[in-house]
């Protein structure tokens, strides 16, 4: 039986799945999901929206279902666990991952879809020409420092390794074995995808401040966790350099 297209209500295999990790994001989802659906309809796509609930207690699940999303309960901890749950929940040929906090504007899906044949993994990038980020000076400094450090140490030709706003071709995710379960899963994915020979392209993106609520990221802890995993990522980078798509 084919899945129900949650953007149009018709029964069809979806062109696209949008995976949204969420934890206590009810108010933001009330705004995000209708806007996301409007963009999907304007593009003429069939799509399913998958909200991965990490144990919310503010009505996130009910709000997502009320707005037509399919809710998947997260089984493994961390941001990486949420992504894995979302990846496993759909067989759409293209998958977009985005945050629930309104920092990733739905209209950018137009750019993703326009460039879908240019690379197997597209990154909404704050740090390429034309991209920018609205954030406090400390967070901007930390983000720039982490991305530059990872880029140089891991020898990846990318500028925004920590952006979670991405579009994946299904083939990239098939058989992808991930160890990380925190936010460092984003770097691990890039290392493995790059080593397998898939194309990765960055698209300029304007990152905006989150909507309602407080960020779930504690900046110092976030930065320290990334620095601690740098050695593991470096070892992984060298371990998979000789790998391929097989």
- Major sheet: order of its strands? 3-2-1-4-7-5-8
Whole-angstrom Rg: 17 Å
Mean pLDDT: 85
* CATH homologous superfamily heading: Spore Coat Polysaccharide Biosynthesis Protein SpsA, Chain A
- Kindly report how far apart the N and C termini lie: 30 Å
Order of helices and strands: EHEHEHEHEEHEHHEEH
CATH architecture: Alpha-Beta Complex
The DSSP helix count reads 8
What labels describe this entry?
seven-stranded mixed beta sheet, Spore Coat Polysaccharide Biosynthesis Protein SpsA, Chain A, alpha/beta
How would you describe the overall organization of this protein?
- With 246 residues, the chain is of the alpha/beta class.
- The protein has one domain (16-239): Alpha-Beta Complex (Spore Coat Polysaccharide Biosynthesis Protein SpsA, Chain A).
- The chain is built from 8 helices and 9 strands.
- The longest helix has 21 residues, at 219-239.
- α1 (26-42) links the parallel β1 (16-22) and β2.
């Amino acid at each position: 039986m084919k899945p129900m297209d949650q953007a149009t209500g018709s029964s069809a295999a979806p062109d696209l799945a949008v995976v949204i990790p969420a934890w206590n994001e009810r108010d933001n989802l009330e705004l995000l999901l209708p806007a996301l659906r409007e963009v999907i309809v304007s593009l003429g796509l069939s799509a399913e929206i998958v909200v991965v609930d990490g144990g919310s207690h503010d009505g996130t699940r009910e709000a997502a279902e009320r707005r037509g999303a399919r809710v998947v309960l997260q089984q493994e901890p961390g941001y990486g666990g949420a992504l894995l749950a979302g990846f496993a929940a759909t067989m759409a040929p293209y998958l977009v991952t985005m945050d629930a906090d309104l920092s990733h504007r739905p209209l950018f899906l137009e750019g993703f879809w326009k460039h879908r044949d240019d690379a197997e993994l597209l990154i909404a990038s704050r740090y390429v020409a034309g991209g920018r980020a609205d954030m406090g000076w400390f967070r901007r400094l930390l983000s720039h420092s982490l991305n530059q450090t990872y880029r140089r140490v891991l020898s990846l030709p990318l500028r925004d390794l920590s952006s979670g706003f991405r579009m994946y071709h299904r083939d990239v995710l098939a058989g992808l074995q991930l160890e990380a379960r925190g936010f460092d899963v984003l770097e691990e994915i890039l290392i493995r995808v790059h080593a397998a020979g898939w194309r990765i392209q960055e698209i300029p993106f304007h990152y905006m401040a989150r909507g309602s609520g407080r960020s779930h990221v504690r900046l110092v802890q976030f930065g320290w966790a990334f620095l601690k995993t740098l050695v593991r990522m470096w070892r992984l980078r060298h371990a998979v350099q000789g790998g391929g798509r097989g």
